[in-house]
Specification:
Shape: globular
Structural class: mainly beta
Order of helices and strands: EEEEEEEEEEE
Number of strands: 11
Number of helices: 0
Helix content: under 10%
Length: 124
Amino acid sequence: VQLQASGGGLVQAGGSLRLSCAASGRTSSSHVMAWFRRAPGKEREFVAGFSWSRGSTYYADSVEGRFTISRDSAKSTVNLQMDSLKPVDTAVYYCALALSGARIPSDYGRYNYWGQGTQVTVSS
């Protein structure tokens, strides 16, 4: 499985950005895909996840109500729409895929594949 992330960039506080992560290779309907981020000097943290089998979502408290994760099943792509961005959202964002599981884990150790990071910078 390969993950290709795109999107990101520089935006002012209150603005929006959209990240996409395309999965290719031997994918199946049982995957969970998620976004994590790592800010300078901080640990990697879970942002949002999507269960392909259940169509369910799960968000970190810090982004609930501002970010929306969705799946484009035709393209095996998971998108992260980020609205009302804040400077604290500045980080390198990574998409990840867990091979199986109905639940959406927030522990990065549960994910099997990772995409390259994409920088998101929110200016104040």
